[in-house]
Design goal:
single chain, 269 residues, alpha/beta, Rossmann fold, seven-stranded mixed sheet, five-stranded antiparallel sheet, globular
Length: 269
Amino acid sequence: MTTPELYADARIYDIAFSDRDFAAECDFLAWCLAQHSPVNQRSFLELACGPARHAREFARRGWRAIGLDLSPHMLEYAAQGAARDGVRLECLAADMIDFTLDQPVALAANLMESIAHLLTNEQVVSHLRAVARNLLPGGLFIIETAHPATIWRDSLPNTWVSRTTDTPYFAGEPYTEVEVLFGAADDPYDWITQQWLVTVHLVVREGDKPARAIAQRWPLRWYQAQELRALIELSGAFSQTWWYGDMLIPPPPLDNSDTAQRMIVVLRK
């Protein structure tokens, strides 16, 4: 795998994708562990972690927390954030397709559609097997990706604006605004490889500085439920699977109703 150039500006990336309730999502992840696993240990691995907001939240709760990412810039940023929070975060620079932890964990998660960076069936199967190798027996792996109904062109372009004043995560930091375009209506799609060449364009405004732009295109692949189910079965790494439609407690089922906003897959080793 390769790391998107956007990751080199970790703080701007963090601001752009910070409009989430990380604490509530960690409540859901912990609920899944209590609901679906016999493991009585508090340890968490965030794969493709970026700023590691979920891992840092678990660290604040006293869990052993690990952030794994390909990008040294992101891991350094995540470690600095954990230090400011006064918590311990283990950082591992590695490819989520093949990695080894010092000790297995009870709970692992691939969140924020990061599985879309895995472009081939072989990469997904290798990823699933690598995660399972690093889980305790009975441990859980949770995948969050887009609801299958939302991945086609009728939802594009996808735009939003994030500001440091919009969330408590940047309290006390200089005012920064990031205008985001993630996915343009004319982004090419390869029907053979099932890969999008996704446009990402950010306009960054920091205080009185002149606005600057960050633009990039990189390939992503969003998975339909049945092909993901087949890849999970092919991996042979998990004993049971649950499918949910959002990260809520209790979660709605994955279906075509308005209550299902995402595709959440919970896997038990």
